[in-house]
């Protein structure tokens, strides 16, 4: 059975993903880290490497919104 709280969380998750152009991990809640899209250029990759992001691999980075 799905609760109203779960529906609300899902809607907030979808809105946040759309607004920020990112992906959400399973069971994401506001304040949790989001998954950023992969860099499209070498320059974007360099910016990502030298930024404040948590890097899992060169193509997988997360940040807190």
How many angstroms does the end-to-end distance come to?
Answer: 30 Å
CATH homologous superfamily label: Antioxidant, Horf6, Chain A, domain2
Proportion of residues in helical segments: 25-40%
CATH architecture classification: 2-Layer Sandwich
Count of helical stretches: 2
What is the average per-residue confidence, as pLDDT, rounded to a whole number?
90
Principal-axes geometry comes out as elongated
What can be said about the biggest beta sheet?
3 strands, antiparallel
Name the CATH class.
Alpha Beta
Order of helices and strands: HEHEE
Q: Quick one: how many beta strands?
A: 3
So what's the oligomer here? single chain
Q: Low-confidence stretches at least 5 residues in length (pLDDT < 50)? A: none
Strand order within the widest sheet? 1-3-2
According to CATH, what is the topology? Answer: Antioxidant, Horf6, Chain A, domain 2
Q: What's the structural domain tally?
A: 1
| Structural classification | alpha+beta
Q: Determine the strand fraction and express it as a percent band.
A: 15-25%
């Amino acid at each position: 059975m799905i609760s109203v709280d779960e529906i609300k969380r899902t809607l907030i998750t979808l809105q946040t993903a759309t607004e920020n152009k990112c992906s959400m991990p399973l069971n994401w809640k506001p304040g949790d880290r989001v998954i950023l899209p992969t860099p499209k250029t070498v320059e974007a990759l360099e910016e990502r490497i030298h930024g404040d992001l948590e890097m899992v691999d060169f193509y997988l980075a997360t940040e807190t919104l």
